[in-house]
Specification:
Elements: E1 11-12, E2 15-16, H1 22-40, H2 42-56, E3 62-64, H3 66-72, E4 75-80, H4 90-103, E5 108-113, H5 117-129, E6 133-138, H6 139-144, H7 146-154, E7 158-162, H8 169-182, E8 187-189, H9 200-208, H10 210-223, E9 230-234, H11 239-245, E10 255-263, H12 274-277, E11 279-283, E12 286-290, H13 315-323, E13 326-332, H14 333-347, H15 353-359, H16 362-365, E14 374-379, H17 387-397
Parallel strand pairs: 4-14, 5-6, 5-8, 6-7, 9-10, 9-14, 10-13
Antiparallel strand pairs: 1-2, 3-4, 11-12
Helix pairs in contact: 2-4, 4-5, 4-9, 5-7, 9-11, 10-11, 14-15, 14-17
The chain binds pyridoxal-5'-phosphate (PLP).
Pyridoxal-5'-phosphate binds next to helix 11 and helix 15.
């Protein structure tokens, strides 16, 4: 049977692998040997499951959105990751990785963050586990995401502003990797998405796979069968999408539709739609499609949504796109904004701007939907953090 899961060398088709400097080779090898036995151990599972239930608030509801269903002519269920502690799916992964770090005897955590959402999730679990935490963040982002910086500090993390390059996520990631290179023995690098060298994409996908595990039994309870006709999610690095599709990835009855950030349009220079316009290259230890010039310089991505503003996409989704297993469509800024206001007005749910990029695909695929089709769409996070942006654009959308 054809599988879209990782192979024994850490590849998804031609994507993935572990391109790391010599000095990290042993650290990454150690993690590669350790992560599966740890994740599959009863001790890990007991602790991880208990925290997901009592600390994160799982299972997250699967909600039949009646008015949206009517509008789009299908049975639309929303997977409510926005209701998790800290407001998004990222906590599922952060909890899993810090438990793995502890089992491996690591004493210190580093992380990178762009919008600050992964930084907050990491700072949260470090407070919970009493581990020292340093979060690298581009100096530009430190200014733009002031509230999240204060949240991280309040949680006890040290926020380290990065002054190199464009002073955004890519530069923060480089700096986090540099730190990891200097302290490979005692430091664990908590990566926030399905990116980075193998085994990170597979490890993060497994830690997020609780999303599709729940969708299975929740659908069974609600509609009497455990699979939908469509799964939809937004893609930045790819972790909420990976979790949403994990247990269905090889099930061809289930169609997969993913939204990436079109920005001002894929034919402009202001976009983050790396699957549409990217070319093969290596970024942060992984072979993926990324936005680069002909001589391999990274093109700074743009999206209204800080969480989708990454110049590449993880190897899992690059492979799903290249093989045609997933339909990957861009959603532009204005389409995402409109979708966010629509969900708010029709269902009383203010989604994160990232999640709005999945919602914005509903009008694009409406013609292919049948009234009996069951569609599960993951609302990856809540929109509190995006309120300023929503207010700034309200008059254009909401008249
Ligand atoms: C970070 C973030 C994303 C994008 O990350 P993925 O790894 O692609 O899931 C999406 N939604 C929210 C709410 C986020 O915070």
């Amino acid at each position: 049977m054809k599988t879209y899961q990782v192979d024994e060398n850490g590849y998804y088709g031609q994507f993935g692998g572990a391109y790391v400097p010599e000095i990290l080779y042993k650290t990454v090898e150690d993690l590669k040997k350790a992560y599966l036995p740890i994740i599959e151990s009863k001790e890990f599972q007991d602790e991880y499951r208990a925290l997901l239930r009592d600390y994160v608030g799982r299972p997250s509801p699967l909600y039949l959105a009646k008015r949206m269903s009517e509008k789009y002519g299908c049975q639309l269920y929303l997977k409510r990751e926005d209701l998790n502690h800290t407001g998004a799916h990222k906590i599922n992964n952060a909890i899993g990785q810090i438990l793995i770090a502890k089992k491996m005897g690591k004493k210190r955590i580093v992380a990178e963050t762009g919008a600050g959402q992964h930084g907050v999730a990491t700072a949260t679990v470090c407070a919970l586990m009493n581990m020292p935490c340093r979060v690298y963040m581009g100096a530009t982002d430190v200014k733009r995401q002031h509230v999240n910086v204060e949240r991280m500090k309040m949680l006890g993390a040290e926020v380290f502003p990065v002054e190199s390059g464009n002073k955004t996520l890519k530069d923060a990631t480089n700096e986090a990797i540099r730190d990891w290179c200097c302290h490979p023995a005692d430091t664990f690098y908590i990566i926030g998405s399905t990116v980075g060298p193998h085994p990170y994409p597979d490890m993060v996908a497994r830690l997020q796979s609780v999303i599709s595990e729940e969708i299975k039994w929740q659908l069974k309870e609600k509609i009497g069968r455990d699979y939908p006709d469509y799964l939809m999610a937004c893609v930045g690095g790819g972790s909420n999408a990976a979790g949403t599709i994990y247990h269905y990835i090889d099930d061809e009855r289930v169609k997969i539709v993913l939204g990436e950030a079109g920005g001002l349009g894929v034919d402009t220079n202001m976009t983050a739609a790396s699957m549409q316009i990217g070319t093969l290259g290596i970024l942060h230890g992984s072979r993926i499609k990324l936005m680069q010039t002909e001589d391999g310089q990274i093109i700074e991505p743009y999206s209204i949504s800080a969480g989708l503003d990454y110049p590449g996409t993880g190897p899992i989704h690059c492979n799903l796109y290249e093989t045609g297993r997933a339909q990957v469509l861009p959603a532009n800024d204005d389409e995402a904004l409109r979708a966010a206001f629509e969900l708010t007005r029709l269902e009383g749910i203010i989604p994160a701007l990232e999640s709005a990029h999945a919602l914005a695909l509903l009008p694009k695929i409406k013609d292919q939907l049948k009234p009996t089709d069951v569609v599960v769409l993951t609302v990856s996070g809540r929109g509190d953090k995006d309120l300023d942006t929503y207010l700034a654009h309200r008059s254009e959308i909401d008249n």
